[in-house]
Structure formats: structure tokens, C-alpha cells
Design goal:
The chain is mostly helical and 117 residues long. It is built from 5 helices and no strands.
Amino acid sequence: MTKRAGASEPFSRDKVLSGVRKACQGRPVTEDDLALLAQRVEETVRASGVAEIEAHEVGMAVLPSLRELDEVAYLRFASVYRAFDALEAFEAEIALLRAERDLSEDADPLKQPEKRT
């Protein structure tokens, strides 16, 4: 893994866990959930077949699994790795999450429409 400053170090599942644990602080996420997420990230990184991967790319590989696990933790983590620099970046990401959630709910044939009174 290559850091921003150019230094190289081996991939560390523990470092992935540490970063994700911080994003998940105070969220209803178990250690087993975190371990599974770190395993998925490691598998993704290794499957890329690249000998040296940028540390930033490891962070980006965390995002899909974290998004599925906990949306608030995802936003925390994404704000760092995708460099949100303004409130509008958070708003845009939240709008995207909502839109995708609505699409997945619409695609679920078992979901009954809510009755309004």
C-alpha cells in the first residue's frame, strides 16, 4: 500500500478496522460486522491484482460495504475519503442515499404501499 507521502507499507486489516471503528462509534454496529467489512475490503484489494495500491483506494474500497452496514457511519467515513469540503457535499450525498433507498424499496415486490389516512 502506498501512502500519500509516497511511503510504502503492507496492507493492514487492523488499520481498516481502526478507521471504520471510528466512523461507527456510537452506531449499532457489532465487532463481527466490522470484522466482516474488513475482510471484504481485504478481498477487494487483493482481487484488484495490483501489487501496490494507494491508501486512498483502500479507503474508497471501504465505502460500499460501510454504506450497506450503516449510512451514518458511511457519511462520516465518506466525508474524509471523498474530501467533503462544504455542507453541500453532505447534502448531495444524503440526497443520493435517499434516492437509492427509494429505488430499492420500489423494486421490492414484497413491500406493501403505506396506507395514508
